[in-house]
Amino acid sequence: MGEFTVHRVRFFDYMPSAIRAMAFNPRTERLAVARADGAVEIFNFADNYFQEKVIPGRDGGTVEALCWVGPRLFGAGLNGAITEYDLENLRPRYSVEAYGGPIWTVSGDSAGTMLAVGCEDGTVKMFEILDETIRFQRNLERQKGRIISLSWHPSGALIAAGMIDMIRIFDAETGRATHRLLVERGAGASKSREVVVWSVVFLSDHTIVSGDSAGKVQFWDGHTGTLVRTHLVTKWDVLALAVSQDESSVVAGTSESIVVQFQFISSTVGRQDNEWVRTRTFKNHSHDVRALVHTETAVVSGGMDTQLVVRPLLDKVEKNTQESSLRKIAFPHRSLVCCAKKAGLLLFQFPEHLELWRLGESEGHGRAGDSLPVKRKPEKLIHLKRKGDDHIRCSAVSPCGGWLVYATVSGVRLYRIQHDNNNIGVTKVSKLPKSLCSAHQLCFSSDSSKLFAASGLSSVVVVALDPLECKHLHTLRPKSGSRQPVHLLCVSDDGKWLASANTDCEVHVYNLKKMKLHCKVPVYSSCPTAIGINPVTSNLVTVHADQQVFEFSLQQKEYTEWSRRLQQRGLHPVWLQRDTPVAHITFNPRNPAHIVLHDVFMLCIIDQSLPLPEARTPLLNQMMLRSLPEAERSRQSHAFKICKSFQHLLSMTLLDDQSLVAVERPLLDIVSQLPAPVRQKKFAT
Amino acid sequence: TAARWFLPVPWSYSTQRPSHCSGARQGPAAGGEASDLGGLLLESSDDEAPEEVTFEDSKTQALRSMKDALDTVRREKEQLKEKRRRRQELFQEQKVCVLAPSTDQSDHKTNSFRVNWTPSCFSLKGNYTVATVKERSSATFQQQVAQDFIQSRLYGPGSCRTTNNELLSLQNKKGRNQSAAVQFVKKDWGEFSPKSVRPC
């Protein structure tokens, strides 16, 4: 079938950022995740948990809490400001200073009219939510001590605030503090240490649930202000609480990396005396759990180990189905690596800088599985720090390796790279057209003459490259008028076609010779995660979040014969059950029937000349085929050739010289550089 | 003993002689100076008993003098603080005025900034331009305090933390395929240092 020399790249020191806060919007089924570096990510729970959007953070911008108000997303952090995010342009829409010092928590009432923030100076500030902005209304009675957590009573009349050593209940109308619930400190040595109430939840029957730094989950009666029940859950802190929509289940996340569930049930079957009973314990993390969300069917947790874990509750979903499996999202769903195919260079995107590396060279030949000796080691050519405070949103390097570009929320910067002998020179191109103000995706044409930048309203700006001054050539616009951002861009090798995909699941194809819209691919219900244009056949291949694969002929403006056959047969169940999306599609210049794709755990070459696999035959058959004699092999081969030798893959490209570049980032390398976990004494260690 | 809490009290006696005794009643000696006592002694006869002071009186007097001493100390401290504050303010003022002449000389050909200076500052003479120094505002200071709070609560003393190496090694030893402890490729990975335990 083919032998490839593989460049196994492990020098991309990608470090994800810890999850700090989460908020779920049940109506749109979107989960917003705030990371420690200030980035906000949106996951679509209705579309196989696809990471739809990423809003990059900025230096010094922390997000301590997130809150949905209808379709609007608000965040607040230690810089003392409340930010509303623009989810169409993927940037902060505006920030309002609260003037209360660092903000620890933000919460909206169930009516969606008021936003309450808990501040360092001990005030709970109320903001009115208006159409275009939020407006400060008033402060509640000022307290001595910082407000760490807040929860509205569903009626909107009361607010519970978790502070240090106590919980305060405020009357939202008058602003007065009505009750003070004193939280007991830890026993023994921790008696002298103040107890911090990290999280509170106010239920509609006026029960208040609190999680504190002494490791207790306590249930209080909000009417009388008395303690009903205490559960000592851990020796360390209880950092997060979440309650289900129907208030029958509460989950608590701890520093010990476990998530504990409490359910409001009766201890004896048949009786009606419901009480809060500790039921399940989930151990899906290795480090502190700092954020929790309780959806209707699952518990979503995230924390210092940077992984997003979705644990479906087995009493809400059908057992042993795709729906009931545990999901761990550890890697981004978009590519952070760009490969300059002709020059053999790799561009790595970090939040604060870019790195350009030259691939190494090996010599000799070997058999499958051999490691070849390295003749020349890979070397880092450029380390480019970004200008300003904003983090890098997207970047690209041209195939010839002569141009480098990156974009932040505030602007785009283009650089010319000169290679002469052993010296590398980087010069910034200062004159850029005004239309290139910000970009969601960037892409160079294969002849390095043009730069394509995805801009607002799903449009694409075409810029002619010139070392001195780049001129705006054209703005390609879709007819649909979608306001959603473009998250995928690809250009064909012959420079004739450009395809763009947005988060409204639309894929548009533009004719670059005529500079106008060529066609729009029929909209499929799942969002595309990778697109590619075959250089020989000019067929557009799209892979979607639900793992469906389509091939669309650009000449005929219809799905190809092969694609129809694939849809008729249906994709193999093992293929459909994969839980990471395909992040990149590339093609084999020597064999137009090959489609090379990869996700985090596998590399797959789809050979369109071979028969499609049947559902009852195993999908992963490469090992088995190798053991068969030649004649048998060709009878049993099918189109999907999957290799799982490389993990965890961040990128996979095929260079012009038939060598594969696999950029791996082993999970162990990430875990080893995380902050310290708690010390747990295990029996017999 | 309780005696050491009492400042040396001037010893004075005052006696209330019963009415049937003859002789003028002498008032209590003021402050108890030797000369006064001497005076008293001169005036009263030799065989009269020294004046008695009640316990209550001497206690209140001792307390009063102690309070006075504390008051003086506190007043002095405040005066010192006030003096220091005034000096600091003066330095700040001087710094603002002195900073102006010492900015980037290379900039002096380009456009100069217009700044409203308070009358107490020196006026700028010659080719000087003004550049704003990016200083740490109080907002970032508060942010730092808040971050330090989280850091110390989660990773500070008493938080019982271990290293990632130990966590992974334990997983290796208790896992299904038991293997040796984890040896990191780079020696400084996962080191328990204040820099590496920042949660952000």
From TrEMBL, chain B:
<protein>
    <recommendedName>
        <fullName>U3 small nucleolar RNA-associated protein NOL7 C-terminal domain-containing protein</fullName>
    </recommendedName>
</protein>
<feature type="compositionally biased region" description="Acidic residues">
    <location>
        <begin position="44"/>
        <end position="55"/>
    </location>
</feature>
<feature type="domain" description="U3 small nucleolar RNA-associated protein NOL7 C-terminal">
    <location>
        <begin position="128"/>
        <end position="190"/>
    </location>
</feature>
<feature type="region of interest" description="Disordered">
    <location>
        <begin position="14"/>
        <end position="59"/>
    </location>
</feature>
<dbReference type="InterPro" id="IPR012579">
    <property type="entry name" value="NOL7_C"/>
</dbReference>
<dbReference type="GO" id="GO:0003723">
    <property type="term" value="F:RNA binding"/>
</dbReference>
<feature type="compositionally biased region" description="Low complexity">
    <location>
        <begin position="31"/>
        <end position="43"/>
    </location>
</feature>
<dbReference type="Pfam" id="PF08157">
    <property type="entry name" value="NUC129"/>
</dbReference>
<dbReference type="GO" id="GO:0005730">
    <property type="term" value="C:nucleolus"/>
</dbReference>
<feature type="coiled-coil region">
    <location>
        <begin position="63"/>
        <end position="93"/>
    </location>
</feature>
<keyword id="KW-0175">Coiled coil</keyword>
